[in-house]
């Protein structure tokens, strides 16, 4: 499982919305192979050098998206990040779009939660709300 602070998830979603409003919409996480899919508020879950979420609004020239690493898989802070990523995300790089409409209503109804848990299986992504 990969965990992210709820406040950070909210900031990533908000940043994507701000960038989209300023720069003409949302980026396609699938590099145009699935036109229109994922081009709405949300974020990308990325497995690369570590596992992180990234804002998805279109960016101005030279602008960088907001990136937040999972608690368990941050290359600059976790010595076993590669093994953890391989075990829970897979050895290959990958990207999945997560729709804000799937999560934000739950965040708003669940007082006291502090983290979002994201668990991947071969065919599914599941979410859990965590209080720490």
From TrEMBL:
InterPro entries in the record: DUF3085
Pfam families: DUF3085
Name the record gives this protein: DUF3085 domain-containing protein
Taxonomic source organism: Nitratireductor aquibiodomus RA22
């Amino acid at each position: 499982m990969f965990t992210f602070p709820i406040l950070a998830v909210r900031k990533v979603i908000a940043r994507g919305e701000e960038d989209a409003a300023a720069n003409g919409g949302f980026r396609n996480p699938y590099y145009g192979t699935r036109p229109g899919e994922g081009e709405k508020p949300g974020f990308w879950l990325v497995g690369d050098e570590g596992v992180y979420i990234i804002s998805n609004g279109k960016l101005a020239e030279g602008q960088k998206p907001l990136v937040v690493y999972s608690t368990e898989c941050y290359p600059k802070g976790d010595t076993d990040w590669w093994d953890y990523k391989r075990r829970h995300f897979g050895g290959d790089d990958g990207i999945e779009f997560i729709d804000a409409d799937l999560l934000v209503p739950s965040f708003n109804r669940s007082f006291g939660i502090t983290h979002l848990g994201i668990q991947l299986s071969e065919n599914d992504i599941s979410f859990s709300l965590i209080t720490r």
